[in-house]
Amino acid sequence: MNDVPKSTTLVLAEYETGPITREMLAQYAEASGDTNPLHLDPAFAQKAGFADVIVHGMLGMALLGRLLSSRFANRALLKFDARFAAILPVNTSLRCRARLAEVADGQPDDGHLRLALEAIDPAGTVIITGSAELAAAN
Amino acid sequence: MAIDRAHVGYALPAFTVAVTPERIAKFRAAIGETGGDVRVAPPTFMKMVEGEHNSSRRILDTLAVDLRRVLHAEQQFDYVGPILAGDQLDVVRSVSDIYERKNGLMEFIVIESTISHAERGLLGRSRQVVLVRNPKPAVAA
Question: Domain A7-20+55-136 adopts which CATH fold?
């Protein structure tokens, strides 16, 4: 399992993705090369046990990653982890949030910024949890 | 059907990936990225690099996994150096572990990749955990 750090209440960045549409899934499949029909073909998704196509976990992680590249561009990214906790149906929006992570006991003070990340659907279900570690840029 | 554990250690032949400015631009557009430096690959671009040549599908096919039963469970990236437009990257991917939970109803495949550059050395590592949802075994009459 990922070592997802406990988060503090301090939210450092957040945004709402807006509904993740079929067009976005097709565009992500094309750009990433991930053409798994689970994300593109409703009939296949139904055979796999879902009502409709589901969002690529990696698209969700990429949307979370926008918090890092946009809001912490002055830092160097060292680690970025995600755990895909629940599936996300097409046309659902995600709220992506980065909180300051709690400092663990014995953790060295290396100046690194540690973030606890989450992507939550409108019903409040946690779809992705994650973490990131960033160093002060040279 | 349980995945043959003999596949632990299975590695795809190493392959190379050319990172063009167009591919970074297309990836940025697909994820709605507007910030950062357009010449630097976004954090999850490593997934595109390691997935080149349909490599993930080829690994799952080798392991005889039914694509309908597969979900991405976890993903970790370690960053050593930036991936830049114009880079020619060397990718090595292998199956590092296969394990099960819930009496085999859930099997997990761990795929690890390294991405490196001939002059700048190792740029990043990826570790992916794939969940295979197996059907409940038929109850004997």
Answer: Thiol Ester Dehydrase; Chain A (3.10.129)
